[in-house]
Amino acid sequence: MAWSVVIAGLGVLVTWFVATRLARRQPPSNPVLFWVLGLAALAPAWLIAFVGLLGPLPIDRPEPSLEVGFIFSSSAALLGVIVSDAVVRHLRASGGEHRPATYWLLGVGALLPAWLIALLGLVWSRP
Question: Which pTM does this prediction carry?
């Protein structure tokens, strides 16, 4: 779990740094790029926590709390990406000017609930 938190912090810092550099370019980069950077900020951390929900191997049957966390976390990740993609498409279609940070935050927000659910599942499964 600690590795997941460290990787999340690093991912957020690195992708924010890259996003701010790209935002300064002329002409501005594609807004979808900032959304993908936001997704990349938490994707490795979520994956680490998500795999941690599998528990120690070999195992015949995972604990019910791990199964619930596994299902809810994967569902939240999928739903978050689908919803945030729809919001990004809507913002682009509206024709208004939106800051690159808006798209980056949408990407981070897409996986944040899934990552938190996976972390909670890991906390609850500890003896």
Answer: 0.85
